[in-house]
Amino acid sequence: MGFTDTLADRFDVAARGSDVRTEVIAGITTFLAMSYIIVVNPFILAEAIEIPGYEFFEVVQMIAIATVLSSAAATLVMAFYANRPFGLAPGMGLNAFFAFSVVLGLGIPWQTALAAVFAEGVLFMLLTAVGARKYVIQLFPEPVKRAVGAGIGLFLLFIGLQELQVVVPDEATLVTLGGVFGNPWAILGVFGLVLTFSLWARGVTGSVVLGILATSIVGWGLTLGGVFERGVVTPESLPSAQYDITPLAGAFLDGLADIEPFTFVLVVFTFFFVDFFDTAGTLIGVSQYGDFLDEDGDLPEMEKPLMADAVGTTVGAMLGTSTVTTYIESSTGVEEGGRTGLTALVVALGFLASLVLIPVVAAIPGYASFIALVVVGVMMLQGLTEVDWDDPAWAVSAGLTVTVMPFAYSIADGLAAGIVAYPIIKLAVGEPTDVSLGQYLLAALVAAYYVLQTSGVIL
């Protein structure tokens, strides 16, 4: 029996109507579609993670390695334990919440934020192991679950436009459109957006990573051609290759010693909520492409891919990165015919092979990497179509969830607004029995937290 036959037998390829060649192509396709995270995640987290004695781009390389290793670990679990063709990596939105809301916004040390991610991963594993998924799903209002993806999309979109300097601060209106055409950084960012959106609209595989690379090449080309001085649209200096991540790995242990209970619980809760429903929604959505769902619309043995997500999150926190989740880009590989864990195995190997390119990450200009936030943010707005805007409770709860996230610069605040609003509107329209006891209790706890926080009782 040859190696190909061994792989086919190990992943039951033939039984699922596929073949090894198709699975390999599907895996390469998925990896190309989601590989932008190797560049984007480090730039987002490095905004908040400062390590004494190390420069910004050295930290970027450390986080890139943590991103690659956690993605590979989670996807290998998906391959060999769940035998599903899904790729996993640190989630967009959750990395922004980690950096901009938790660390920079709340002033929580990044080590403690990693401890919260670790706690969320362990909680996710425990709930998945005991089969408590359905009870967790019932605890949250449906409009909040449907709107959270779009809210995160707007949050990413807002952050991305600011990082590209397309949107800038304004004393009168808080924010306004920047002077794009007088700013080389913004000009190149807009160029990258136009290119990336055009590639995506044409269905080009890996459009985001291609847009990032093309924009970076243009920026470096203009610099080397003498149009701009070094440091204007490119990094001023590049560090040597940084493969030592010991200052980052294990830092969550230090964070466990510096916890403010109430705030820590809220952060863990937010990480868990977004991770759980993002993963569950992605699994169901991608599974529709591959006809994996049963007659009830459920994914058989869904606990297995959920466990891969939980393991990846836990490993990622230990290595030094934010929450790992299943990627919607997995649908590109499924559309290519990927049906088994062999597709996921190829994705994991793609991540591991990318370790040799870690030094290149430091050469990517910031405007190129933040293109992904705007593009992914726009893609996530599709979730708004799932909201029943004719129902007052849905409209208010979902509307607040979506809008408070970018306006308050916090995913947690958006979730809180939606969770508290739902039972209030249901009571107002005379439908109190539509809200479960658990949803009432959750809303009361969330409201109590914010009352105590604003009154200064807790941080």
Automatic annotation (TrEMBL):
Record InterPro entries: Azg-like (IPR045018), Azg-like_bact_archaea (IPR026033), NCS2 (IPR006043)
Keyword annotations: Cell membrane, Membrane, Transmembrane, Transmembrane helix, Transport
Gene Ontology, cellular component aspect: plasma membrane
The keyword Isomerase belongs to this UniProt entry's keyword annotation: no
Keyword Chaperone attached: no
Gene Ontology BP, a term: purine nucleobase transmembrane transport
Subcellular location: Cell membrane
Membrane-topology annotation of the record: Multi-pass membrane protein
Annotated protein name in UniProt: NCS2 family permease
